[in-house]
Each structure stands twice: as C-alpha cells, then as structure tokens.
Amino acid sequence: MAIYTCGHTTPDSDSVCSAISLAYLLNKIGREAIPARQGELNPETQFILNKFGFEAPELKTEFAGCELFITDYSDIAQAPKDWAEATIVGIVDHHKLGDLTTSTPLECWIRPVGCTNTIVKEMFDFHKVEIPKEIAGIMMCAILSDTVIFKSPTCTDTDIKAVRELSVICGIEDFGALGMEMFKVKSQVEGVSARNLILRDYKPFDMHGTHVGVGQLEVVDLAIFDDIKDALQKDLEALRAENNLHTTALLLTDIIKEGSEVLVASQDASVFEKAFNCKLVDGKVWIDGCLSRKKQIIPILEPAFA
Ligand code: MG
Ligand code: MG
Ligand code: MG
Fold this sequence. Notes:
36% of the residues lie in helices and 21% in strands. The protein is built from 11 helices and 11 strands.
C-alpha cells in the first residue's frame, strides 16, 4: 500500500512542497509514496510548482484505511476529518506539538526550525539520497516562504544553510530575488473575495477548548489593503459567527516594514487585548516586528484561554 504524504488543511507552499519532496525521498528508499494536498493551491504555491515544472499533488480529503505521513502540522484541527481511521506512519513538522495521537509506532521528525522542507532536507542527508534539481527548487522556495526570506524570528541557521545548499543544487544563485518575486505573487489580492483572502492561509486552533481561527496575508506593501480592509473586517466577524468561534484574527503582515496589522473579531476582544497588552482601535492594532503567527501570535494567545 502506498503511503500518502500530505500537509495541513488550507495548504501553504511548505505543506504542498514537503508532500512532494518527502514522497520523492520515500520512493527513493523503497517505500512507495504519493503526494497529496487537502485543499486548493494558493497563488504562491502555483507559481512555485509552475516554475519548477510540477503538477499539483492529488487533491485528497479522505484518508480512512490509508497510510499517512503527515507534513507541516500535528494538530487535529488541521488534519483530515477521518484522520483517526488512517494509519499515521510518520510526522515531519516544525510547529508546536499538536494533539494528534496514534495507536501504532511512528517516525517523528519534529524540529524547531523555520520550515518543514528544512527538515526534509535533513532527511535526504540522513538517508544519503541525492536531491534532484527541481525538487531542490521547490524545497528552497518553501523555506524562503516560511522564513519570509530569513526575516522571520522562526528562521534558524539550519534553514539558511539548507537554502544555500539547495540554491547550488537548483542552480539559482540569487535566491533573494526569487523570494521577492514569490512575495509579489503572494501580494496580489485584486479580484479575490474577502472570504478567500481570509482563508488563503488560515489555521483553526483549539485553545484549551476554545475555538479560534487565525489567518495571515504576507505582502510587500500594506497599502494594497486600504480599499478592502473594511470588507475583510466584516467578513472576519461573519466567519467567526458562522462557525461559532470565540475569536478570528487576520494578520496583515508587511514583510518590508516588518510588522503586522492584526484585525480581530471576537466574542470578547478583551482576551486578545490582555494577551497582547494592547488596545484595539476599530478592531485592529499594529504589532511592530510581528511576522510569525506560529512564534509571535499563537504562543501568546493560547495561554489567555487557559
Ligand atoms: Mg504550513
Ligand atoms: Mg511550514
Ligand atoms: Mg506561513
């Protein structure tokens, strides 16, 4: 039986590219694997796959009876609904340890680095498998995306070393320029509905029994949101109410100014205000230096619901 490699719901570039790179590695070491994704590709991921000549992995949302190697998450909230009926054979991830459990032994590669593909790179090295040029390209782009071209506080020396090595393999010396090109693609919001923008890179969390959703849009200039911010805020509240969530938030991250304007919709916004020691004005606040949802938002918000 082939193993499915698959990342989180609302897949980002790291989830999609790690499914592909990990499946390639598993096949090379004699374990048949098929990459999959739980949702539509975002424009950045589409750009990366086009650039290096890859098809989108199989769209798959049901895994009952399948063997599954999870990439880029370990939270039930981001897993396929029938995850408990699948056999999870492995996890490769760079987030906080989530709440997935298994009934059989599994292989875990979990490290506090900036990107899952950095860990997949270590797996290639561990198994002494050569990385093909195109695979190196998508892995490098995923690391540049997750680490915001090394600016994110989640970025480590291991990520930078991985990008340098991958850039040699894929033959793209000026990876900074490619990173910027990618973030420009990511910054295109014209003609996209407020809901689709909120859900483009959205993660649901169970914070001590309280349900919260946090989206993030990383762009090169926040001015592109000037005309649509009101619509985003309205829809953030609609999304919260429809799903009976306590709080929804959307990070509008400016990767050049290095900070995020956070839009918040909440049953009780004082929880957010207390957690971040801030005052929301019209449901929003600028947090200087905030680039990472994983490191600068979730660990601060989660204890507020304990
Ligand atoms: Mg991800
Ligand atoms: Mg990631
Ligand atoms: Mg991200």
